[in-house]
Design brief:
Layout: H1 3-21, E1 35-37, E2 40-42, H2 48-53, E3 61-62, E4 65-66, H3 68-78, H4 103-123, H5 144-154, H6 156-163, H7 168-179, H8 183-198, E5 206-211, E6 216-221, E7 224-234, E8 243-252, E9 256-257, H9 260-273, H10 277-280, E10 283-286, E11 314-317, E12 328-331, E13 340-341, E14 355-357, E15 361-363, H11 366-374, H12 380-388, E16 393-406, E17 410-412, E18 418-420, H13 427-436
Parallel strand pairs: 5-16, 7-14, 13-15
Antiparallel strand pairs: 1-2, 3-4, 5-6, 6-7, 7-15, 8-12, 8-16, 9-11, 10-11, 12-13, 17-18
Helix pairs in contact: 3-4, 4-6, 5-6, 7-8, 8-13
Length: 439
């Protein structure tokens, strides 16, 4: 046979073979707003980019029905409860036999199921800010087309494993969930697993983590706790928010500028009873919130006429033993004006329940924490010299340290024991209602 004829036969044979193993072609469905398949509705929009890049060819199906990848994704989603998710949220009861003419719809149906399951596993079943405006964790962005490409090449099992949160605590909670037979304990585990899905997948090789529910703060290196100390967090009425940021500097001998709300709600009633309240506690008062506002004589202000809702004056407490922020504060500038700081009220650290602040986080032994945070750059003797100056001193970090203000009512300790904490802010309740129904 002539060479060109042989080549043509080989090419034709190869083409036919490839076509026989190709998945269902969904080109005719991609431009529709919705596709109905049995009792389900499919939205082709998010899947369009991927399938157009493949000229409509599927990855889950072949001429006879589901291929190995298709069977595998159905199997993986059937085990969604291992991650605290519900299989029927992604795939309804799947038929044993499929008709040839419904394979394009089945192809899109499985891609939608894979997408939604992967998204919830990767970013969370609920939106992080769903329960309160003081939770400002951005929902993770993702590349659906990239996920589908990888699933087509390497199989969905590898992709799903990669989408699962990489945090050790998540893995430990997942193990506990598999063993528990209590319907209330399981729910609490699932709620806490959900919160790990919200957090950044890379929290920083070395980072600070505050667990508001346990009133604790850790420095963690490679997921190992290298420093642990007690903290005081916000009262239930003044919840400490949840978000991630980075500590950029420490301020020694800090001043404290009283917020308008605290000045109006808490200081004003005391000033109406006793105008010397500020003077006795080393506060100064200024005519406005402008930087160049003049200092006022507190005794000359008619406090009865001052509005508590629109407090016009700026109150600043000088550095010293009476200062509410103590000797140091650690800053990660944010819109809530939340930071870590010392406190003169050391006795509160002895209490098991430590929700007493207006939202900021008070640290036990903060100067010791400073030496751990700054390492060799800031020794105890250096800190002592700074404090002796009695003037406000800012020490910037050479490299910012990520900080995560979290809320976990379950924590697996180093011995594998699961510790449970009271839901002081009632945050478990709202997340649970959305995960399990009732919201």
């Amino acid at each position: 046979m002539h060479f060109t004829k042989i080549a043509a036969v080989l090419i034709f044979t190869s083409f036919v073979g490839t076509t026989a193993s190709q998945g269902a072609n969904v080109s005719g469905l991609l431009e529709k707003q919705a596709v109905k398949w049995r009792s389900s509705t499919i939205s082709p929009g998010p899947l369009r980019k991927f399938y157009k890049s493949r000229h409509g060819r599927g990855i889950w199906t072949d001429d006879e029905g589901l291929n190995d990848r298709g069977k595998k994704i159905v199997e993986l989603i059937a085990k969604a409860r291992e991650d605290g998710l519900i299989p029927s949220d992604y795939i309804k009861k799947f038929p044993k036999k499929l008709k040839t003419d419904e394979l394009p719809s089945v192809e899109l149906y499985l891609s939608q199921a894979f997408w939604r399951f992967g998204r919830d596993l990767y970013a969370g079943r609920t939106t992080p800010s769903v329960s309160a405006p003081d939770i400002v964790i951005s929902r993770k962005k993702y590349d659906l087309s990239g996920w589908l490409v990888k699933a087509g090449r390497r199989g969905p099992g590898i992709v799903i494993d990669e989408l699962r949160p990489p945090h050790q605590q998540y893995a430990e909670l997942r193990k506990k969930l598999a063993k528990t037979k209590n319907r209330r304990k399981a729910r609490k585990i699932i709620v806490n697993m959900e919160r790990w899905r919200w957090l950044p997948r890379k929290m920083g090789r070395r980072h600070v983590l505050v667990n508001q529910a346990s009133y604790e703060m850790f420095i963690r290196t490679n997921d190992k706790i290298v420093d642990r100390r007690r903290v005081v967090v916000g009262k239930p009425y003044h919840k400490t928010p949840m978000f991630s940021h980075a500590i950029t500097y420490a301020e020694f001998n800090p001043t404290w500028t009283v917020s308008r709300s605290i000045a109006g709600e808490e200081f004003l009633p005391k000033l109406r009873r006793n105008s010397s309240y500020l003077e006795k506690r080393d506060y100064k008062i200024y005519a406005s919130w402008d930087k160049d506002a003049e200092e006022l004589d507190v005794k000359k202000v008619n406090w009865r006429k001052v509005s508590s809702k629109d407090f016009p004056y700026r109150i600043v407490q000088s550095p010293g033993k009476k200062n509410a922020l103590g000797k140091v504060k650690f800053m990660f500038p944010n819109r809530f004006k939340i930071y870590l700081h010392d406190t003169p009220s050391k006795r509160l650290f002895k209490n098991s329940r430590r929700a007493y602040s207006h939202g900021c986080i008070r640290i036990q032994k903060p100067l010791e924490f400073a030496t751990k945070l700054f390492k060799s750059r800031l020794s105890k003797s250096k800190i002592d010299k700074i404090l002796e100056r009695e003037s406000t001193t800012i020490v910037k970090m050479r490299r910012s340290v990520p900080i995560h203000l979290t809320y976990f009512t379950l924590w697996i300790d180093e011995k594998g024991k699961m510790k449970s904490y009271k839901d002081v802010y009632k945050r478990d309740r709202m997340v649970g209602r959305i995960l399990f129904g009732g919201a």
